[in-house]
Amino acid sequence: MAQDKIITVTSPLLPDLDEFNVMLREIWDRKWITNNGTMHKRLEAALCEYLKVPFISLFTNGTLPLITALQALNISGEVITTPYSFVATTHSLWWNGIKPVFVDIDPATGGIDPDRIESAITPRTTAIMPVHVYGKPCRTREIQEIADKYGLRVIYDAAHAFGIEVDGRSILNEGDMSTLSFHATKVYNTIEGGALVVHDEKTKQRIDYLKNFGFAGETEVVAPGINGKMDEMRAAYGLLNLRQVDDAIEARHQVAIRYRQALRPVEGITFWDDMPGVRHNYSYFPIFVDAEKYGMSRDQLYSRLRDNGILARRYFYPLISNFSTYRGLPSAARENLPNATRMADTVICIPIHHELTEADLDRILDIIVNKR
Ligand SMILES: Cc1ncc(COP(=O)(O)O)c(C=O)c1O
After folding, report:
1. Closest residue CA from atom 7 of ligand 1
2. What is the per-residue pLDDT for 2?
3. DSSP labels for 207-240?
4. Is the dihedral of CA 49, 53, 56, 61 positive or negative?
5. What is the largest CA-CA distance in the chain?
6. In whole angstroms, what is the distance from residue 263 CA to residue 288 CA?
7. Atom 10 (ligand 1) nearest CA
8. What's this model's pTM, rounded to 2 decimal places?
9. In the chain, % of residues over pLDDT 90
10. Is 198 in a helix, a strand, or coil?
């Protein structure tokens, strides 16, 4: 039976409105509302500290840092990536006139399978764009070894990887650059927003030029840049959200603990446990449905949840390689992507966020566990 309250897959972390107003008053008084203002600088510094990274450049969303990273590194030809992601990953290649080459994923992480990268390399390959999907770290060491062997760049789409650490080290320090998304649906949000993490000051400078039309000073344009700047309002919002993101992550962690406890005995439903040594952010809780063992298909369960007001999402179905823009690429063939295909066909991300109540979790689990 349908219930009144709709439960969404996530809920945006919102700053306290009174505190936000105080920040807005400051901005109003300064009358400097964008273009590397005080809030922007403060947020970059605060994020470097929180994320344990040396340099970060804020953007207006998480797509432009991908596009800009490719520009900054002069990437061309072919780039190896995976189809198990949000479509912006591959779109960023397309916007740079680069041919995406899809490689299958490792079913243990959802990230690119390093064992399949080498056979996809051609003389035109210039870079690898892996995705830390759901914030689960890719096999970064093996990826870097291949990149070093063939002289390739590595740009991580780390849109989901806010705050992820492996053995105390930020995953954002891997590769040549990493991008973040601060979209409203992410564990840390600035409504719309994003960032590019780089390892040295010179590159940070170049990125800052590129996100401001290529301007280096008032009268000089050093590159065909774009407008990717974050404004002061969203930077202020981001400063406030940074203060409460740890509590939100812990609340999500508690939801994950409850889900794992309740779902472990359910035949035909699988999920991931935490990885040893990894600080997770619990931004998603994907479950995988084996229709035969569970007695219901993924889509039947998805519809049943929906019919009961629970808006789970099938991230990442369909695969990017199945969208009409990319379907014709040789690497998009189903036979090339068996693990990604299986994952996309069986996954449901069930609700996880900081505001879920015990009653919400009971409702969700009652449907999945008792198949009501
Ligand atoms: C893996 C991935 N890459 C890139 C993006 C693009 O980020 P944005 O929506 O902030 O442009 C998203 C998210 O929305 C994403 O999930």
Report:
1. 62
2. 47
3. HHHHTBTTBSSSS-B-S---B-PPPHHHHHHHHH
4. negative
5. 67
6. 11
7. 62
8. 0.97
9. 98
10. strand
